[in-house]
Give the backbone structure.
Amino acid sequence: MPNKDIIVCKDIKKAYGMGETMVVVLKGITFSIQEGEFVAIMGPSGSGKSTLMHILGALDTPTSGEYFLDGKDVSKLSDEELADIRREKIGFVFQAFNLLPRTSVLRNVSLPLIYANMPKEEREVIAKKALTDAAFPEAFWGYHSNQISGGMMQRVAIARSLVNNPALILADEPTGNLDSKTGEIVLHTFQNLNMTQGKTVVLITHEPYVAEHADRIIHIMDGNIVTDEKNHHKRLARNEKDIPHDNT
């Protein structure tokens, strides 16, 4: 049986301004992503990929067209309904780690569950599992986030994205603030989550090298999809054990 579609975009258009000042950023984007896929959406600055990312992440709605996330039509929801979708369906990982600096790793990962008023014992169990799934060493769970390396901070952010068991992990330039070796560790984490746990991962990037770690690459240019192809030369990111680095 084929996997179900997690993302379905039908003729998505996005424009800003009115009349002569109108700028059309997305010009009719149509594609779907199945459950368990690892897809990179790639394009240069100004291509429309960031606008598309905001729509996929329920941070914005299209001017026209339809967007279904895990079977739910997201394209015409209110701001409050979009917030519910973001909380329930999407795990975000951004270029900036967005961690609280004087707060422990474990509590940073627990934060979405704290906001959901989940009892402490239950949320700690879930947060610890998420850290384990993100390959974050248990010895550092009690450290403050400003006491660990950039690569480790990004894996904390990945763990935080997992705690609500989202339908989609949406990663926006997740290696942008990291050196290449540390970026490899983070990309290995995404690959491992996808290959061993079947997590659906959509990676937004302008770097061809980063995109080549995905199973499929959608290339956006001037608001249009120019290619959408399986990646038959996928790069396997190196495991942390293969890369010497400073943990703290």
Summary: The CA atoms of residues 17 and 148 lie 43 Å apart. The first helix runs from residue 49 to 56. Strands lie at 5-16, 23-34, 38-42, 64-69, 72-73, 90-93, 168-172, 201-205, 216-221, 224-230. DSSP finds seven helices and ten strands in the chain.
